[in-house]
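Schema walk-through. Below, the input block comes first and the output block second. Nothing else is stored per chain. Lengths vary across the set, and this one has 367 residues.
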Amino acid sequence: MYVAVKGGERAIENAHRLLAHERRGDRDVPELSLPQISEQLSLGVDRVMTEGSLYDRELAALAIKQARGDLIEAIFLVRAFRATLPRFGATEPVDTGAMQVRRRISSTFKDIPGGQILGPTFDYTHRLLDPQLAGGFSPETPAVGEASATATPRVTDILGRDGLIEPSPAADADAPVGDLTREPLNFPADRDLRLQNLARADEGFLLALGYSSQRGYGRNHPFAGEIRFGEVEVEFMAEDAGFAVPLGSIALTECQMVNQFKGSATEAPCFTRGYGLAFGQSERKTMSMALVDRSLRARELGEEVIAPGQDEEFVMSHSDNVQATGFVEHLKLPHYVDFQSELGLLRKLRQEFAEANEAPQMQEAAE
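--- output ---
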């Protein structure tokens, strides 16, 4: 046993050295720098920050480099690092209504106060590979506009003034807010915990659930009321000063979905809300999040729960890619004793099966 343990340790050390060698790749190719990853693979960095629950572009870029581009592994690294950090308190709620908007679109109204701002997006590209990028060619950089300082009221506020959409829940500064990073998940979960779970959830998992809701598995008929991306200021209440002080700005994407609702015996028909918020430019994530958020409100709105996307326990228990990765990939670890036990049981059952079938055959032969 001692030899096996030592041999395993040496193998693992060698595997680590080999991993470092493979990570670096061909030494004739210049090594990637963290600024290159942060600036040129920005959407991957945004995803790692969002699902890793830590807004730090440099650390997210480092995690992507260390993980060889495996975003889920990078998310795992960021979460592990986050768990070592001290916590000084909670910031004030960010005001996305005061966002310095870089992109803002709505599919519900063409002309909205503040206008549609297309911003940086793949939406209108032809999805054709650009060979110029392979050669390192950089086209002439267009002038980059500043973030819009024009007032951009939310589209849902327009509907709200006419009473056509459910009111947004009033904020209660004294109400406790759950924290999934420090407390275990319990059911039933309030919406604050559901939204936290969805923000940290795997983007692909949410995308599939959101897609399923659009195809009829959950009675979800959405409209993209508004998607906005830009900079918001973060403030922290300084007890000594007696007022909130700004800490800096972060980039956020917010999505508000507008969904149909037929009403009930006590509620007039109106639109309902689905909400998504994520770090950086994360439109697919926030849209999927908003779709699933609305699906998870089925019981609250008196709707029948008939689809996976409406099942709170199913969604929240399986959305975390770090937990899912650990449970799936642990199958790569040695299970020699377990398998030998299963193998012995299988052989015993097959022997009993053979003996049970052998007796009638011998009796028939004797007759």
